[in-house]
Write a structure and sequence with these properties.
Layout lengths: L3 E10 L2 E2 H10 L5 E5 L6 E5 L9 H17 L4 H5 L1 E7 L4 H10 L16 H10 L6 E4 L5 H14 L5 E8 L3 H9 L23 E8 L5 E10 L12 H13 L9 E3 L6 H14 L5 E3 L2 H4 L6 H14 L2 E2 L20 E2 L3 E8 L4 E9 L3
Parallel strand pairs: 5-6, 5-7, 10-11, 10-14
Antiparallel strand pairs: 1-2, 1-8, 1-9, 3-4, 7-8, 9-15, 12-13, 14-15
Helix pairs in contact: 8-9
Length: 375
């Protein structure tokens, strides 16, 4: 597997644009909202990392946000380069017309009139491709929490196969009642905040996010060295607590990039703050790395952005390294494994090789390896 360049990256999180989010991390000034989530017996109010400007009309607002991301990513590409640029979207969002149909007929709260427009999420990619004069090849990947991480792998494959000079990868996640209800029904939502790898963790906090990267054949400071994806789990919602499934994909990512565990300077974990997932991941880390490995979780800063987290967390991690540090993990005060503790202070760093983990429902697990050359 050959590496591809990461030319640009942009995000919009609950904390704002890329620079605003970076500042929030550096200053530990994290904004978090709350959302009412209808449940079987009663409506609960749960913490939620929401956009400051609420996405009111999903169809039009999402497209407007994606259009702004793409405009930033392609602004330096000429007409010929754009013709050799494809778009892949990664998201966990169900097609909106299906969501509207379910919400209009299934739940007892006030119903809205349902009128199916039969728009798929992939229609965003096709519209963006046409608007910006890009190649008409588009793809949308929906593999739960690994959606946009797998989109990055597929983009790398397309470039390595010489099918395209560039590929734009977008991650999308906005509030979804259906998604929130599902996590709440499985008792996976926190009532306080996220505490990755902490004995007192009580679940995840969901988050909204948009993110985009431009991958290319060009040599750049940042590169996607490669990675791996495996579909393997104990059951439909969880891996075994031994961490074997997670260790499998991490080791395969190292093998595919011809790297050793000792070549990895730091690890961006998936770190969902759910008991089973955190224990599985920490055991996997112990199987793959020695206890000196530096690792952290970004979800306490922006929430679990589900299908968008592949691109969003990758971009945010790169932004931190570009700013000279690996961000600490917030709220881990009572670690679940004494020999493997996420860093509790920002650590100086300007370059290196890093692994990024993403583990999703259904046993769809992905590890990516990125590299920044030293200046």
């Amino acid at each position: 597997m050959s590496s591809v360049g990461i030319s640009k990256y942009v995000i919009k999180s609950s904390q704002g644009n890329l620079q605003q989010t970076l500042n929030s991390i550096k200053n530990e000034n994290i904004k978090i909202s709350s959302k009412n989530i209808p449940a079987v017996m009663e409506t609960i109010t749960a913490p939620y990392f929401l956009f400051e400007d609420e996405v009111k009309d999903n169809q039009h607002s999402i497209y407007a946000e994606l259009k702004e991301l793409v405009s930033q990513l392609v602004c330096e590409l000429d007409e010929t380069q754009r013709k050799s640029t494809a778009i892949i979207i990664g998201t966990s969002i169900i097609d909106w017309y299906l969501v509207d149909a379910i919400e209009a007929t299934l739940y007892s709260e006030p119903k809205k009139e349902y009128n199916s427009k039969k728009n798929s999420i992939d229609s965003y990619a096709k519209e963006l491709s046409k608007e910006f004069g890009l190649n008409n090849f588009t793809m949308t990947i929906n593999t739960a929490c690994t959606s946009s991480a797998n989109a990055l792998l597929e983009a790398s494959n397309l470039i390595n196969a010489s099918l395209f000079e560039n590929v734009i990868v977008l991650g999308i996640e906005v509030f979804s009642q259906i998604m929130s209800r599902g996590f709440n029904a499985m008792q996976l939502l926190s009532q306080e905040n996220q505490k990755p790898f902490d004995k007192e963790c009580d679940g995840m906090v969901l988050g909204e996010g948009f993110a985009g990267v431009l991958l290319s054949k060009k040599d750049t400071l940042w590169s996607l060295e490669g990675g791996a994806n495996c579909s393997n789990s104990l059951n439909i919602t969880a891996a075994s607590q031994s961490g074997d499934e997670f260790a499998e994909v991490m080791n395969l990512a190292l093998k595919n990039t011809q790297l050793r565990a000792e070549d990895i300077l730091a690890l961006k974990t998936h770190g969902t703050s759910t008991n089973s997932n955190d224990l599985a991941e920490i055991n996997a880390i112990a199987k793959v790395y020695d206890k000196e490995i530096v690792f952290t979780s970004l979800k306490p800063y922006v929430g679990h952005t589900l299908g968008a987290c592949g691109v969003l967390e990758l971009s945010l991690f790169m932004a931190c390294i570009d700013d000279g540090f690996i961000p600490k993990t917030l709220s881990c005060t009572n670690p679940i494994m004494e020999n493997y503790i996420p860093i509790n202070a920002h650590q100086q760093c300007n370059s290196g090789i890093f692994m990024c983990n993403y583990f999703g429902f259904g046993g769809n697990n992905t590890s990516l390896i990125i590299k920044k050359e030293s200046l």
